[in-house]
Design goal:
The protein is mainly β. The chain is 1% helix and 53% strand. The strands form 7 sheets. Strands 19-1-2-3-4-34 form a 6-stranded mixed beta sheet, with no helix packed on it. The structure holds beta-D-fructofuranose. Residues 19-20, 36, 48, 80-81, 96, 148-149, 204-205, 257-258, 278 line the site of beta-D-fructofuranose.
Length: 445
């Protein structure tokens, strides 16, 4: 069948541009997924708004439209990224109001304001009046004008906020603010800076969360050095543990940035990222059809038996499985997108899709496009694995998420084949393929 590249398992706008996930939360019996949205431009032109999807089960979604507009003096150049916090019977949404003053400015050290703003909602889409919590005069004097992307959580009866920032000496950092009492709409005070020397010029979209009693700091740093195995993309994203020594990337593929985590009602820590990055040297031809970019599927975060942080596709996905096919080394399979492939690994192997190859060789897993019309400028990405026991691939109509070694490493990429039919050639491994049903995504617009 002709592939129209409309995703079946990943949230994407019906028209326009999407970037970061925002305000992720479960509130009033619904999951809420907001996102950075330019409804009128598939190229992201114009001031950013927030779009909104909601779902009772992560599988049946409704797009309710644009719900937050840059319509005040405090956010007039964009309602930038932020988070959700459920309190009493309201959803609190914290975000950055971006203000660019007209003039001859560099917009780094001058000409820009960053206001941290709170709105509340009782239904997820009708917003209260905007309440400015922090402005430029509240940030340390060593900060540039880039201070944004609040993530808020409750701790010991107070609220904490982490912001991403660029300092005047062109290093990135995270700023922690705290409330005096238990009112997230009240006053906020600067508490401390989190810094790591030689770690980029700007940290975007920070997130602090706890997993198995341990704290992690997730950031999307800009300006890291690119090497063969690390930080291969223009901008990176990953997490530090509490010691701030090791930084592990969330995803080693071509298309991943600005993830955010939240807790599901059954206590899972779920992560959703933008399956895209700014300023990339490759393209997404859906833009010519009127829309660009999608979010990753929700990923469940956990700690494996070796104490490593792992990511797994959300468990609800299993209910979309249709036909099951077994395969063994040397087989050529024919299947339709979307599908899932799972295999246990006990040797080097390769899997070829005609336009894309992946292989494990000498402890390095490589993902490589062999047809540039499908990869649209994407070339090759590598990840080092200290042993790999399994691989799970979730292939949508125009994207793939590859989970390696129980989710210890993940790789995501967009791709644009003309057909939904794919031939898969496998060598060196036996496993299973399931064809998958799609999610339901309705729109109110
Ligand atoms: C990350 C980012 C954020 C900002 C938003 C603007 O992709 O640059 O730092 O809030 O996108 O759309």
């Amino acid at each position: 069948m002709k592939n129209d590249w409309r995703q079946k398992l990943h949230l994407e706008p019906f028209r326009g541009w999407l970037n970061d996930p925002n305000g992720l939360s479960f509130f009033n019996g619904m999951y809420h997924v907001y996102f950075q949205y330019c409804p009128d431009s598939p190229y992201g032109k114009g001031d950013k708004c927030w779009g909104h999807f909601q779902s009772p089960d992560l599988l049946h979604w409704e797009f309710t439209g644009t719900v937050l507009f840059p319509d005040t003096e405090a956010d007039k150049s964009g309602a930038y990224s932020g988070c959700g916090l459920v309190k009493d019977d309201e959803l609190y949404l914290f975000y950055t109001g971006n203000v660019k003053h007209p003039g001859d400015y560099d917009y780094i050290t001058d000409g820009r304001d960053a206001n941290q703003i709170l709105v509340t909602t009782k239904d997820g889409h009708n917003m209260s009046r905007k309440n400015i919590l922090l402005g430029n005069h509240d940030y340390p004097e060593y900060c540039s004008r880039h201070v944004r992307d609040p993530k808020v959580w409750e701790e010991d009866g107070k609220y904490k906020m982490v912001l991403g920032a660029r300092k005047l000496d062109d290093t990135g950092c995270a700023l922690i603010y705290t409330t005096k009492d238990s009112d997230p709409a009240g006053e906020w005070f600067f508490e401390k800076e989190i810094f790591k020397p030689n770690f980029g010029y700007m940290w975007e979209c920070p997130d602090i969360f706890t997993l198995n009693g341990k704290k992690y700091l997730s950031i999307s740093p800009q300006g890291l050095e690119h090497t063969e195995f690390e930080h291969q993309n223009v901008y990176s994203s990953g997490r530090f543990d509490e010691s701030m020594t090791d930084f592990t990337e969330w995803d080693y593929g071509f298309d991943f940035y600005a993830p955010q985590t939240f807790e599901s009602p059954d206590g899972r820590r779920l992560l959703i990222g933008w399956m895209g990055i700014g300023d990339i040297p490759y393209t997404n031809p859906t833009a010519e059809k009127g829309w660009q970019h999608c979010l990753t599927m929700p990923r469940e975060l956990g700690i494996d038996e070796y104490g490593r942080l792992v990511q797994k596709p959300f468990k609800e996905l299993n209910s979309l499985r249709k036909e099951k096919m077994g395969f063994s080394s040397g087989d050529v399979l024919k299947t339709d997108l979307p599908f899932e492939l799972f295999a246990l690994i006990d040797s080097d192997f390769d899997i070829r899709f005609g336009f894309l190859e992946m292989r494990l060789k000498n402890g390095v897993f490589t993902l490589e496009f062999t047809d540039d019309k499908v990869g649209c400028g994407r070339t090759k990405r590598n990840v080092k694995l200290n042993g790999c026991v399994d691989i799970r691939i979730i292939a949508d109509t125009s994207s793939m998420e590859i989970y390696l070694n129980g989710g210890q490493r993940v790789m995501s990429t967009r791709f644009y084949p003309q057909s939904t039919e794919v031939d898969i050639m496998v060598n060196g491994l036996d496993g299973l393929v399931y064809t998958l049903d799609g999610m339901e995504v309705k729109t109110r617009e």
